[in-house]
């Protein structure tokens, strides 16, 4: 397989951009990610991929829960607040307000909408862990257009 073609073709997948939260012991953590998709209506299932060795990945594996805060178009600052590893920058929430609902995972107050999941399947095959979560609660803060990865000019994939 030609590496350039593989990269180019995989980068043709369109993505949104989300803040994925979880519990880490008694604390919470979150990272910005684009590998998020719905995979079933009944039950409502969502798949996310979390990089092996990150605090968030270990947190999701250990706690069995995660939340997804759907960012609104233009919320670049919010997205960028959660890209860096917590191990390097410390608590990433700073002034960012959040609350918890059913699972204890952090939900960003400023997000467009959110849902939270209990993990029902884990696949460790690649360099990211694939978590399948059943949606157990969801909410809408306001209507608007969700953020896309494209508008940030960044890529994560290929
Ligand atoms: C555009 C972009 C998209 C990203 N998408 C993902 C993703 O879907 N899954 C993931 O595990 N990491 C993704 N990352 C990397 C995480 O944001 C990064 O590993 C983060 O530092 C993990 O946080 P933690 O160490 O506090 O858990 C992405 C990074 C960028 C720049």
Question: What are its keywords?
Answer:
17% helix; seven-stranded antiparallel β-sheet; 158 residues; Pnp Oxidase, Chain A; 4 helices; alpha+beta; two-stranded antiparallel ribbon; binds flavin mononucleotide; globular
CATH topology: Pnp Oxidase, Chain A
Q: Return residue spans where pLDDT drops below 50 for at least 5 consecutive residues.
A: none
Helix and strand pattern: HEEEEHEHHEEEE
- List each distinct ligand once: flavin mononucleotide
- Major β-sheet annotation: 7 strands, antiparallel
What's the end-to-end separation, in Å?
Answer: 13 Å
**Could you name the CATH homologous superfamily?**
Electron Transport, Fmn-binding Protein, Chain A
Total E-strand runs: 9
The CATH top-level class label:
Mainly Beta
Q: How many alpha or pi helices?
A: 4
- Helix percent reads 10-25%
Level-2 CATH architecture: Roll
Shape: globular
Structural class: alpha+beta
Strand order of the largest sheet: 2-1-5-8-9-4-3
Radius of gyration: 15 Å
Average pLDDT, all residues: 97
- Estimate what percentage of residues fall within beta strands: 35-45%
Q: How many distinct folded domains?
A: 1
């Amino acid at each position: 397989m030609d590496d350039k073609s593989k990269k180019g073709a995989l980068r043709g997948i369109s993505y949104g951009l989300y803040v994925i939260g979880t519990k880490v012991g008694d604390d919470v953590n979150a990272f910005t990610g684009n590998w998020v998709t719905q995979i079933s209506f009944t039950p409502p299932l969502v798949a996310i991929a979390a990089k092996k060795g990150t605090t968030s990945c270990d947190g999701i594996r250990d706690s069995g829960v995660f939340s997804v805060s759907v960012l609104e178009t233009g919320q670049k600052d919010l997205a960028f607040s959660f890209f860096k590893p917590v191990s390097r920058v410390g608590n990433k929430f700073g002034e960012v307000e959040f609350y918890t609902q059913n699972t204890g995972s952090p939900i960003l107050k400023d997000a467009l909408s959110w849902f939270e999941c209990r993990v029902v399947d884990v696949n460790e095959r690649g360099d990211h862990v694939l978590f399948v979560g059943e949606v157990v609660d969801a909410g809408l803060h306001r209507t608007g257009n969700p953020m896309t990865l494209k508008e940030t000019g960044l890529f994560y994939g290929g």
